[in-house]
Fold this protein.
Amino acid sequence: MATGRTHRPATRSRGIPEATVARLPLYLRALTALSERSVPTVSSEELAAAAGVNSAKLRKDFSYLGSYGTRGVGYDVEYLVYQISRELGLTQDWPVVIVGIGNLGAALANYGGFASRGFRVAALIDADPGLTGKPVAGIPVQHTDDLEKIIKDDRVSIGVIATPAGAAQQVCDRLVAAGVTSILNFAPTVLSVPDGVDVRKVDLSIELQILAFHEQRKSGEETAAGDGALPAAVTPRDDADQGPDGDVPAVMPA
Amino acid sequence: MATGRTHRPATRSRGIPEATVARLPLYLRALTALSERSVPTVSSEELAAAAGVNSAKLRKDFSYLGSYGTRGVGYDVEYLVYQISRELGLTQDWPVVIVGIGNLGAALANYGGFASRGFRVAALIDADPGLTGKPVAGIPVQHTDDLEKIIKDDRVSIGVIATPAGAAQQVCDRLVAAGVTSILNFAPTVLSVPDGVDVRKVDLSIELQILAFHEQRKSGEETAAGDGALPAAVTPRDDADQGPDGDVPAVMPA
DNA sequence: CCATCTTTGTGCACGCGTTCACAAAGACAT
DNA sequence: ATGTCTTTGTGAACGCGTGCACAAAGATGG
């Protein structure tokens, strides 16, 4: 039933791998910086360093777009900026609605990176009548009742959900029903959407927990002689009374 | 030189795959919800549906932690909550500092999901002297000058960077020098960190661009007879004057 | 105690993504 | 025109992640 699918499974639209698509914005950012410094060309090695990836990976990524480099020279910065922008669809206008204007929603509305690349905040929507009409980031907040009308009038296809978890699925359903086919979800919930709708999630809590996992590993490495690596800069956190398997919780399985 | 590495390459600490670690918080969230409804046990099928993943994947994920299920019955909810929490390191206290108290930093400070699972906002730090002392989310903002002291006094090992892009690398360097070994980066920049330091990034702009890519694909599918899927609900966006390869940019490569 | 039924745990195969390593291609100097 | 030097583009191998499909394990009922 495709509930909560985040990365798309294997639809790979025209041959550009999903992993490559996810890196294109990174390259674009690095290239834009070079462009502003009027750098004419760049080698895969330099650009890869700027984007924080392997140079072979970068070359293979670009090879999916076509042969835009010149051997012995590198890539033309301006040309590549245009090609990647076009491939990502950033040469057109993407109206975006943000639903849920709390702390996070307001921060997103104020975020400059939005407007920079083809994205335009078409509307801010919140369920709180007290907010209706109040400007946030220069845009008046509209009430949830008008959600469908806003989506349709402005032909919005991308929605950002920044509501509490409890409201997210309902908002999502309404967005999709009104015609939104891409959703960026900040609410800590798994969203169910029909086929043909893309969902990407940004989950602060999950990221922190992943960091905590690795952090814990760095601290407690008593048992099992180290498998190499783990060189320096490890604060030796003294109170490591967290037995690797010792104590049992109050509750036991039947 | 390991610059800007996000997912760790292949260090796989004790056999738990990175992909599994990334899903554990998802399972934990679903299990916590079940726990609050006093559900005693859950099958892999049910839990997988709640977490939005394949049931076989979930079972394999759990198998890396050990054999915590009972065949014919399922998994004990409370026990699994504890085991996953322990594995993720959430049974201990993780002091976190947030650097950069702008719109986003303030939103993060107010985010409840922080405190819920072992994470504690130890300090808010900003370079603006005008902010120093002012409470945000009930915590007084401290000045960047005291960053090192705060990190060391509170034994902080996780830092959240919510500064503008220009300041991020510098803040990162100071955090790392002071002893932070895990960083969650919200600034749109590639961070360079020494080995042994984990960086995860949350980049709104990148997520939107990935969505735009797929959105563009949904709209313009003139050439190349569809490879199946893509059934309905596609707004037929009329003005598709974006030739798949036709027009050339103003700037051409040499 | 045995049969049946449910659900876990996992062997296996497949596909995607990454990386190495190198041949091909072009720039540039002589 | 020829040779050298740089850098791209990619074939091939490898490893990780995913999902199928099934045997093993235990619960449950007679």
Notes: Confidence is low (pLDDT under 50) at residues 1-13, 222-254 of chain B.
